Amino acid sequence: MATVLDPKPRRPKSRRRHASHVVASQPARAAASLNEIYASFSPDRLNWKHVDWVVATWMLAMHAGCLVAPFFFSWSALGVCLVLHWLTGSIGICLGYHRFLSHKSMKLAWPARFFTLLCGSLSGEGSPMCWAATHRLHHQRSDQEGDPHSPNDGAWWSHLWWMFVNRGPFERAALYRRFIPDLMHDRMLQFFEKTYFWWQVAVGGILFAIGGWSMLLWGLCVRMVFMYHSTWFVNSATHIWGYRNYETRDRSRNLWWVAVLSYGEGWHNNHHAHPHTARAGHRWWEFDPTFWAIRTLQILRLASHVDDRNPACEATPIAEEAAPVAALAAEPSAA
C-alpha cells in the first residue's frame, strides 16, 4: 500500500507576501481602469474604426426629419412638439436625469420618480444610468483630460462629435462601476436601461397613429433636434462664453440665451460651483423654470429633502466644485 504524505504547509510569510501584493495592486488596477475610462472619451477615438453608427444614423434621421417637418406643418403638431419639449427637456433631463439622479439634489416619491425618468428616456438623450455616469465624469474631470465634452478639445467636439465615438460594453461597465455604483442595482433604473430603445419606438408609433407624418415629424424629430442642441449648448457654449459668479477650476460660464433654451441649465458656472443645490439661478434675474417645477413637486408632496440653498445669499459664498463620487454613492438613490 502506498503511503500518502501530507504536503508541507506553506509558510505564513508567503501568504502575507501574496496578500500584500494583491492589496498593493488594487490602486494600480483602479488607476488603470480610470485611464481606460478617460481614453474612451478621447477625441483620438473619433475615427472610422470607432464610430458609433447607431448614434450617427439616429442623429442623421432626426435632423433630416426636422428639415422636412415644415412641409407637414399643423398647429396641433406644433402644440404637441412644445409640450413634449418641456416634458422631456425640463422635467425629464433637467429635473430627472440631472438634478435628481446625477446630483441627488432632492428625493422624489415613486410616482414622480417614475414619471421624470420616463420623460428623460423619451428625450432620446440616452438611458438614465448612462446619462448620470457620463455627467458625473464631466464634473470630476471638467475641462481636464478625461472630460467627455470639453471645448478644450474643440467647440464642435464638445457640442456634438463626442457622442459619435463607440464605447464597448466593457468600457461602459467600467464607467458605471466607477461613477454610479449607487445606481447600478436600482430596479427602476435597470428597467429603463433595458427598455430605453423601445420607448423611442413606442412614442414614434403613437405619434404617427394620432396624427400621421405631421405629428411624427414635429412631435419626435423637431422636438428632439431642438432639445438636443439646447442640451449640447450647455456642454459647449457655456464653457466658452458668458460671465462667472464664482471662480471654479474649469471654464464654466453663465449664458442667458442657453438658460432660455434649456429651462435654466445655462447658469452653468453657478452649477459647477455648487452642483448639489437644486437651484441653477443664484441671482434674481437668473430665471430657472426647472426649479419652479421642483417647488411645485414639493407643494404636492412628491419631492422632499430639496437642497434649495442659494449660495449667492450666503455671507461668503465659496465654490463647492464637484462632490466626490463616493459621497454621492453613500446617499440613498430611492425616494
| Radius of gyration from CA coordinates | 23 Å
Summarize the biggest pleated sheet: 2 strands, antiparallel
What fraction of the residues are assigned to beta strands by DSSP?
under 5%
Structural class: mainly alpha
Summarize model confidence as the mean pLDDT. Answer: 89
In total, the number of strands is: 2
Low-confidence stretches: 1-10, 14-24
Quaternary structure state of the chains depicted: single chain
State the order of secondary-structure elements, H for helix, E for strand: HHHEHHHHHHHHEH
Note the overall shape: globular
The level of helicity is: 55-70%
Number of domains: 1
Distance between the termini: 69 Å
Give an overview of the whole structure.
The structure is a single chain. Helix content is 58%, strand content 1%. The protein is an all-alpha fold and 335 residues long. It has one domain. The longest helix is centred in the middle third of the chain and has 49 residues, at 187-235. The radius of gyration is 23 Å and the shape is globular. The relative contact order is 0.13. The model is unreliable at 1-10 and 14-24 (pLDDT under 50).
